[in-house]
Amino acid sequence: AAMAADERDYNLTEEQKAVKAKYPPLNKKYECELHAWGDTLEEAFEQCVMAMFGYMTDTETVEPVDAVEVEAEGHDMLSLLFHFLDEWLYKFSANEFFIPREVKVLYIDRMQFKIRSIGWGEEFCLPKHPQGTEVKAITYSAMQICEDEKPEVFVIIDI
């Protein structure tokens, strides 16, 4: 009987497979998933920004020379996360080429959906900072914010 149960698990019907996956498959060539967590939602957001920049360069090579503030707002928590990441990405792509070594979320306003953060880092420059993958855009695809025991976030980015 145990054998039959195993077989059932591995020989899923198309219907069962469809039920199991509640998100689109990643197209590894063009997108990747950021998964970050922390003891607080603020920390999960901080880690998510650093995960994004981790695709772009080795953030360990970045020195905290300058401080940059980033604020964002949304109409709910998901759009807040989206705009937060987008604003940080903009700091890199708009002339400044700013790469943070560390990002600290100063506060998240859950009623007004506003966030304020500060990052310490420097301007991206080769060969000091290795060139990684270019992050083209943040997406809402399969975005999740889970606030159970340990807050975690999932975001798919276009690369």
Helix/strand layout:
Layout lengths: L1 H9 L3 H7 L10 E7 L3 H16 L9 E8 L3 H17 L4 E12 L4 E10 L13 E2 L5 E3 L5 E7 L1
Antiparallel strand pairs: 1-7, 2-4, 3-4, 5-7, 6-7
Radius of gyration: 18 Å
The H/E string reads: HHEHEHEEEEE
Portion in helices:
25-40%
Q: Estimate the global geometry from the Cα principal axes.
A: globular
Please, how many domains?
Answer: 1
Question: What is the CATH homologous superfamily assignment?
Answer: Archease domain
* CATH fold node name: Archease, Possible Chaperone, Chain: A, domain 1
Summarize the main sheet. Answer: 4 strands, antiparallel
What is the SS-derived class? alpha+beta
Using DSSP, what is the number of strands?
7
CATH class: Alpha Beta
Unreliably modeled segments? 1-8
Counted by DSSP, the helix tally is 4
Q: Which percent range describes the beta-strand content?
A: 25-35%
Overall pLDDT: 88
CATH architecture: 3-Layer(bab) Sandwich
Distance between the termini: 46 Å
Structure description:
This protein is an alpha+beta fold and 159 residues long. Helix 3 runs parallel beside helix 4. It has a single domain, classed as 3-Layer(bab) Sandwich (Archease, Possible Chaperone, Chain: A, domain 1). Strands 1, 5, 6 and 7 form a four-stranded antiparallel β-sheet that branches. Helices cover 31% and strands 31% of the residues. GO terms for molecular function: metal ion binding. Component of the tRNA-splicing ligase complex required to facilitate the enzymatic turnover of catalytic subunit RTCB. Together with DDX1, acts by facilitating the guanylylation of RTCB, a key intermediate step in tRNA ligation. Belongs to the archease family. Component of the tRNA-splicing ligase complex.
